[in-house]
Amino acid sequence: MRQLIAGNWKMHGRLAHVQGYAQAVRAAARHTDLLICPPFTLIDRFATALAGSGIAIGGQDCHPAPEGAHTGDVSAPMLAEAGASYVILGHSERRYSHGETNARVAGKAEAAMFAGLTPIVCVGETEAQRDAGEAEHVVRQQLMHSLPEGFAGVIAYEPVWAIGTGRTPTEADVAAMHAAIRAVLAEKLGEPGKALKILYGGSVKPDNAASLLALPEVDGALVGGASLKAEDLLAIADAAPRG
Ligand code: PEP
């Protein structure tokens, strides 16, 4: 399957960045799917700037309800209307700083699918959990309880301790975790779970992308910091295996 290289801009980026970035990614030849997840305020501009390019736009969160008295929140239908086709859910920065539970993430994923968006559900262990030998158990619990019935989306394995730190797990650890995730997806979702993309995220950069993306059961990357520069995101995409 074609790999998916997804950029998570987090709370970075202003209007002035959109045109130059969009032009650079549009112009580049690529053999992967590309997805840009900017802040909510830039989704509409990006959708216009990338129209017809085949490059997808995503949100970084959505509310489980389609509308209502939820000050500061954005719903899945609103994201879709603005031009998004994906949404990142359950990122560790939301699980830990906004207290998001697995059940809440499952509700958001259900709302996203109902609105026609592809949810990218993030899972991953803390450093203490890995040191205690609990990494696979923690990720299994997150998957079992963050994915709604009939989940049709993407999983991003993002060890919390590797996000924004410049540290990555060993290749053997990434491969083992992705194999474990694949087994849980098959157990929970049956046959369709075997075909879902599993992305690796956590300090993916142009210089480590080739080795990470070549690992078995790694179907792409969720890239934070390095996605802010179009040339770095493109270099990561370029490092993905062909065919
Ligand atoms: C992320 O926030 O999803 C992420 C993987 O960040 P970084 O690439 O900066 O570690």
Topology diagram in text:
Blueprint: E1 4-8, H1 15-27, E2 33-37, H2 40-49, E3 56-59, H3 76-82, E4 86-89, H4 92-97, H5 102-114, E5 118-123, H6 127-131, H7 135-146, E6 154-157, H8 171-189, E7 197-201, H9 209-213, E8 220-223, H10 230-239
Parallel strand pairs: 1-2, 1-8, 2-3, 3-4, 4-5, 5-6, 6-7, 7-8
The chain binds phosphoenolpyruvate (PEP).
Phosphoenolpyruvate binds next to strand 8.
Report on the architecture of this protein.
The chain has helices spanning 15-27, 40-49, 76-82, 92-97, 102-114, 127-131, 135-146, 171-189, 209-213, 230-239, and strands spanning 4-8, 33-37, 56-59, 86-89, 118-123, 154-157, 197-201, 220-223. Helix 5 (102-114) crosses helix 7 and helix 7 (135-146) runs parallel beside helix 8 (171-189). The N and C termini lie close together (7 Å). It contains ten helices and eight strands. Strand 3 (56-59), helix 3 (76-82) and strand 4 (86-89) form a beta-alpha-beta unit. The protein has 243 residues and is α/β, with parallel strands linked by helices. The protein has an eight-stranded parallel beta barrel, surrounded by six helices. The site of phosphoenolpyruvate (PEP) has 13 residues, from strand 8.
